């Protein structure tokens, strides 16, 4: 609980912000900005959509501060606004559309299936802050598998599950955010948990050390060593490539996918990073000039001492990870 002194400071900032003091408003909202951005990302599955939702939230808070009555904390009030902005975005038809296969000189194998969450984007670990954890460990609650599973739940169920199980808001506060009742929130949470369990994979086995596996992957990928790469994969490895809807499951079909890529003479240099609590790489295609052009971001999911999933994104996220669009020719 905050002290009386903290409460007085908050009240003073609110009064100053209501009078048009932008610095006071930023001081009120800045402590919550990071966690609100991650919340919007979990709700929307898209870094860019989360940016838009956060900006809309802060603008609405600035414009609506006169109506803030103090019955809830500033943090809870901001989450109420963000929740409504995200629910509106989930209902909108302007989500990122699917793209066609765009890897030159490579004919893709027949996909196992077509994925529906083509707007999925990665989240840089560098932007993650320590925050509340309840039912889910932090790494699981930001993992690509978890965020993807959230996208196919009904929007209000998604909001309730994140607010209750991930962020730990009490049911009565969530009911207030959604203009609902505690019974309705509890019912939505029960359905959301059941829906999530049906869609997400089983928890990954403990990985003693990620470093050797990740290093072996990088060596195999950069050298185009198909056998070494395939040896690192689980039997049921899953590869997806948003915003392309093609999805591949199983070592055999994934081997055919990478055989086509390597056979076309495409060779890459990888720059390590972290996304969604998972090891990741910026992928740079070597050009005949020696310059290496950024073509995508690859995120790995590890299970035990194997790679159980690979998610290949396009080059758009590179800038969010402070990765350059290209690398100079190697000397």
UniProtKB/TrEMBL annotation:
Residues 214-307 form the SnoaL-like domain. One of its GO terms (biological process) is DNA-templated transcription initiation. One of its GO terms (molecular function) is sigma factor activity. Residues 30-96 form the RNA polymerase sigma-70 region domain. InterPro entries: ECF_Sigma-70_Domain, NTF2-like_dom_sf, RNA_pol_sigma-70_dom, RNA_pol_sigma-G_actinobac, RNA_pol_sigma70_r2, RNA_pol_sigma70_r4_t2, RNA_pol_sigma_r2, RNA_pol_sigma_r3/r4-like. SUPFAM superfamilies: NTF2-like, Sigma2 domain of RNA polymerase sigma factors, Sigma3 and sigma4 domains of RNA polymerase sigma factors. Interacts transiently with the RNA polymerase catalytic core formed by RpoA, RpoB, RpoC and RpoZ (2 alpha, 1 beta, 1 beta' and 1 omega subunit) to form the RNA polymerase holoenzyme that can initiate transcription. Belongs to the sigma-70 factor family. ECF subfamily. This is RNA polymerase sigma factor. It comes from Phytohabitans flavus.
């Amino acid at each position: 609980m905050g002290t009386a002194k903290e409460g007085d400071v908050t009240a003073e900032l609110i009064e100053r912000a209501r009078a048009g003091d932008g610095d006071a408003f930023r001081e009120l909202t800045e402590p919550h900005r990071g966690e609100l951005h991650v919340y919007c990302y979990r709700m929307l599955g898209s870094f860019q959509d989360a940016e838009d939702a956060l900006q809309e939230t802060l603008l609405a808070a600035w414009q609506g501060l006169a109506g803030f009555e103090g019955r809830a904390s500033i943090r809870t009030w901001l989450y109420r606004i963000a929740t409504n902005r995200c629910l509106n975005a989930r209902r909108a038809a302007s989500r990122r559309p699917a793209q066609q296969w765009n890897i030159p000189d490579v004919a893709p194998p027949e996909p196992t299936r077509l994925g529906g969450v083509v707007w999925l984007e990665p989240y840089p670990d560098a932007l993650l802050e320590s925050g509340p954890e309840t039912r889910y460990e932090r790494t699981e609650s930001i993992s690509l598998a978890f965020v993807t599973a959230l996208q196919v739940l009904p929007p209000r169920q998604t909001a309730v599950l994140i607010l209750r199980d991930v962020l730990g808001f009490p049911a009565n506060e969530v009911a207030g955010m959604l203009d609902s009742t505690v019974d309705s929130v509890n019912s939505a949470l029960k359905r959301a948990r059941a829906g999530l369990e049906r869609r997400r994979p089983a928890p990954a086995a403990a990985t003693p050390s990620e470093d050797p596996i990740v290093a072996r992957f990088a060596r195999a990928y950069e050298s185009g060593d198909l056998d070494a790469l395939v040896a690192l994969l689980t039997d049921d490895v899953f590869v997806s490539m948003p915003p392309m809807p093609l999805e591949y499951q199983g070592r055999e079909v994934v081997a055919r996918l990478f055989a086509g890529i390597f056979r076309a003479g495409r060779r890459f240099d990888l720059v390590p990073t972290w996304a969604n609590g998972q090891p990741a790489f910026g992928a740079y295609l070597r050009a005949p000039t020696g310059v290496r052009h950024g073509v995508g971001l690859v995120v790995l999911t590890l299970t035990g001492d194997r790679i159980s999933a690979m998610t290949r994104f396009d080059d758009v996220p590179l800038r969010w990870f402070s990765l350059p669009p290209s690398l100079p020719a190697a000397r």
